Amino acid sequence: MSSWRAISSWICDVAEYEAHIPVLLNEWVDALVVDPDGRYVDATFGRGGHSRAILARLSSAGRLLALDRDPEACHAGGQLAGQDARFHMVHRPFAELAEAVAEAGWTHVTGVGFDLGVSSPQVDDAARGFSFQKTGPLDMRMNPQAGQPLSQLLQKVSEKELAGIIRQFGGERFAGRIARAIVQAVHEKQMQTTADLENVCFHAVSRSARHGSTHPATRTFQALRMWVNDELGQIREGLEAAMRVLVRPGGRLAVISFHSGEDRLVRDVIEQAVSPCTCPPQFPMCVCGRVPTMRWVHKKPVRPSEEEVARNPRSRSSRLRVAEAVA
Question: For residue 319, what pLDDT band results from cuts at 50, 70 and 90?
Fold first, then answer.
């Protein structure tokens, strides 16, 4: 067990893992719900904070379809569906958003919203294996019923590949040292729980980096979670699916992200629909014939207020980008 657990000066970081509080809630709903009679998709139900806010804005004619790949989130959504006939819950990843909309019998939607990343209830449950604060299995799957847990993936990954994953998804400067230590621990069968992974990360970094403002395992746990769940691939597919169902002008897309890599991907995928021309810049006019299908409403991300950050520290890294369909 590393000395991290004894350092009380870092207890403030635990606020990240308290009960889930929706971030940028008013800004997200204000941007998304442009027609109270419309049909909306909450692509990341979580525990339903954003969905309930949408329902509060809808008329009796409005409808809301929610997706989540976490069975526990779907259970919570099923309870809400039993209370509100305007709401329907679907157990699907948001990469399958277009299929879910088609199965609902909808030909179009008025708005699609995303709240990316891991939810606090997932982190708080030690059995899910997301947190270095709690000892649990090396799992990290958003949907424990599908895919391979982290423990299995670590048995097959090379040191070089693992270092690339930790560097790309976590921005970890000690990625090589951490990957080497993880692979060695796996080989020696000393990598069984999240506590083992936390301990390896802690001792793999330099002594000077062990007692900074951020726990040495933070970026590695984030990177491994994103790898296990193919989060960036899911985001790309989900955004592209969302824009396919926003077929009427004015249909809104609102996306909250927490990780800089997520935010860049959101920006770039939407920008491809806003500025789709592929002609070389030296051409005097467009000849490719590709026309915009989206326009920016908030290209510069909306950030939480100082009051929200003080009330909910988890919101401090959040960013909201908004676009709307033009054709």
Answer: very high
pTM of the entire structure? 0.86
Q: Which of 146, 148, 150 shows the shortest CA–CA distance to 131?
A: 150
Q: Which residue has the tokens 């401090």?
A: 316
- Tell me the C-alpha distance between 69 and 90, whole Å: 9
Q: How many domains does the chain have?
A: 1
Euclidean distance between CA atoms 201 and 220, whole angstroms? 8
Residue 275 lies in a domain: no
Burial class (CB in 10 A: 0-12, 13-18, 19+), 314: buried
Residue 112 host element (H or E): strand 111-115
For residue 146, what are the domain limits? Answer: 134-228
69 located within any domain: no
Helix (H/G/I), strand (E/B), else coil: 245: helix
Does some domain include residue 64?
A: no
Contact 270, 239 (CB under 8 A): yes
Q: Which residue has the tokens 């090589």?
A: 176
Q: What is the mean pLDDT of residues 136-161?
A: 94
273-276 long-range CB contacts below 8 Å, 24 or more apart?
A: 273/243, 273/323, 274/323
Residues near 121 by Cβ (< 8 Å), separated by ≥ 6?
Answer: 19, 20, 46, 47, 72
pLDDT score recorded for residue 11: 28
pLDDT at 211 (0 to 100): 82
Residue 54 lies in a domain: no
Confidence of residue 277 (pLDDT cuts 50, 70, 90): confident
Lookup: tokens for 106: 């909808």
Cβ–Cβ under 8 Å, residues 132 and 275: no
DSSP string covering 125-188: -GGG---SSS--BS---SSTTSS--HHHHHTT--HHHHHHHHHHHH--TTHHHHHHHHHHHHHT
Residue 162: give its domain's CATH number: 1.10.150.170
